[in-house]
Amino acid sequence: MRLILCAMLTLPGLAAAQDIARLITLDTLVEDDPLAALQEVDDVLRTPEVLGTPPDLRILLDLLQLRAELLEQLGYGMAAGDAWAHVGRTRNFSRAELGLDPVPAYHRAADLYEAQGALGHAQRVLEAAIAAETETGRDGAALYALYERLARIATQDGRLEAAANARAAMEALDGPALESSGEGDANAFVAIDVYYATDRARSGSDVPTEFYTGQRADRLELGIATVSIPDTHVPGVVERPSVWRLDFAPNPTKHVLLQKVEPVDPDSYFGRLQGAVSDVPGRDLFVYIHGYNHSFEYATQRAAQIAHDMGDSAVPVLFSWPSRDTTMGYIADAAVVRLSGRRLADFLEELVARSGAESIHVLAHSMGSRALTDALEIMALRRGAQPGDDPVFGQIMFAAPDVDAQLFAAMARTFRPLAKRLTLYASSTDWALVSSRKLHGSAPRAGLGGDVLVGSDAFDSVDMTSLGEDMLAHNYFSNDSSVLADMVTLFWRDTPPERRCGLQQRGGLASVWVYRKGACPTNDLIGVISNLRHAGMRDPEKVRALVPQLLGEPDRSQLVLSVLESVLK
What one-character DSSP code corresponds to residue 506? Predict the structure, then answer.
């Protein structure tokens, strides 16, 4: 049996606007000296080299929240209330971009103000929370609870008119009835089952978005996460609501949502996985391993999004290790990911033996590549893998691996026999890897592109710098359909770089390639290849006849056919 693995790693870069090495070291300082950590946070908040120009909103929010937590820990009640209110206002300002909920921060500020007897301050932040919640267009339980709390505090403060107005608003809501989440419009979204394995600890909450934490569990747990993707979905994007961490579901007809988390026993897990694989042309699996600064929720959304955007031609499987889901958590993430790699090795062996898949693709992103390289090396040594052996996996891909470049090249030679092909995607515009390089004594990271891009006859290196950078400059492999088109082509035909669209050999180096943005009809190519895979069609003549039927327009058809002629050679 042949497997194709996909472990998602965080993608690196070089020419970044900011340097977060200082920020990463804050995590250790918080444990050792909270007061010194607070002083450092205040200084970093005044440092454009860390925040970027304009400020990176995710980094800014991580710092503001850390500042609020430190003030609360140190016993500065009023200052902590002010800091949490600042977090709420910043989340509210940036929620269209980041999708973070401002209401819990406002609630925390109100708690602190109320404890200090500053009831007027508490009322003001609750009014801000009500305004934020009202803007979502929902008028259910969360808004009712906010008015209820406002009425109580206003009464305590002697503001009887304000209390009466809050109670009138409660009556107008007619009780805490939740808004419909859109189940009535069943055709407006699709539900995708993501089969997962995780060594994250459970939180104790049954709410899907809060089910797993960033802490490590004693063992691996298997389960199935259901993610909805709207019909209006834009390829490469994880659409999120402006408020999405409450106990009721936002609208699945508009947003990519984690709807359900269901842990299951191993026998049930592999039995259901075999059934899902049998329904997919080619019996393919796609294994996704996320990188640093990821929650379980976001990892499931990414796994579902990538599988969906590649035409649902492989069953998505997620391996989620206990990332802390914060920019400052780099050191903590690095401390746990290697143990997860050993658990990943055992899980991959079980997939090979029990999934029923004929091909398993693995994509690892950023720090998740450390787990995958360790897992593959363990598997290769256990099996005594040698060049010429039948491959266990199909495509193994590393997206911006946060691994020492020389170490990566050495380990790749050990596990190269396990796969049909190894591919490394890199970039020169990823500040996360630039900072990682600084933290590791200036040793180049394998995911960095440009002049330091590592080359080897054991794997193909592809420099994706031309795609530029997104908000974090760390997700270009999933945010741009150009990379997805390259991955789809690999899954379909194991096509070598010289026959794939948009790749140009660099400097005569046989294994190093540069991607030219805009050179490929990416979305059309993904759609056509997906249809061809579902139809099980590989005959060149039949392909040439089908493409015009799929695309209709002669110019579009001819462009895709010109790409496929090279792929089908």
Answer: -
Phi-psi region of 353 (alpha: psi -120 to 50; beta: other; left: phi over 0): alpha
pLDDT at 432: 65
| Spatial contact of 89 and 124, defined as CB atoms under 8 Å apart | no
Task: Identify the pLDDT of residue 377.
Answer: 97
* Nearest one of 444, 428, 419, 449 to 512, comparing CA atoms: 449
Smallest CA-to-CA distance from 106 within 153, 38, 139 is with 153
How far, in Å, CA of 91 to CA of 245, rounded?
A: 13
DSSP characters for 338-366? HHHHHHHHHHHHHHHHHS--SEEEEEEET
Cα–Cα separations (whole angstroms), residue 550 to 14, 25, 533: 40, 53, 13
Tell me the β-bridge partners of 515: 503
How does pLDDT run across 300-353, given as a tens digit for each residue?
999 998 888 888 789 999 999 999 888 778 888 888 999 999 999 999 999 999
Q: Find out whether 68 and 86 touch, Cβ atoms under 8 Å.
A: yes
Strands of 359-365's sheet in order across: 257-263, 212-230, 189-202, 315-320, 284-289, 359-365, 393-399, 419-426, 460-463, 512-515, 503-505
Per-residue pLDDT, 447 = 87
pTM for the full predicted model:
0.75
Q: What is the pLDDT of residue 122?
A: 93
Residues in the chain predicted with pLDDT less than 50, given as ranges, are: 1-17, 138-139, 175-184, 186, 242-249, 470-474
Instruction: Quote the Cα angle for 22-7-377, to 5°.
Output: 95
Give the model's pLDDT for residue 317.
98
Count CB atoms within 10 A of the CB of residue 206: 10
Residue matched to tokens 């889901």: 325
Task: Please tell me the predicted confidence (pLDDT) of residue 441.
Answer: 56
DSSP state of 403: S
Q: Give the DSSP H or E segment for 145.
A: helix 141-156
Rounded CA-CA distance 410/407 in Å is: 5
* Predicted pLDDT at 379: 98
Region for 347 from its dihedrals, namely left if φ exceeds 0, alpha if ψ lies in -120 to 50, beta otherwise: alpha
Q: What does the pLDDT look like over 479-505, one tens digit per residue?
A: 566 688 899 899 989 999 999 999 999
End-to-end CA distance of the chain: 25
CA dihedral for 78, 80, 82, 84, sign (positive or negative)? negative
Q: How many degrees, rounded to 5, is the angle at CA 278 between CA 272 and CA 281? A: 140
- Strands 512-515 and 503-505 turn out to be antiparallel
Q: Kindly write down the DSSP assignment for every residue of 438-493, as one continuous string.
A: HHTTTPPBTTB-GGG---BTTBEEEE-GGG---SSS--HHHHSHHHHHHHHHHHHH
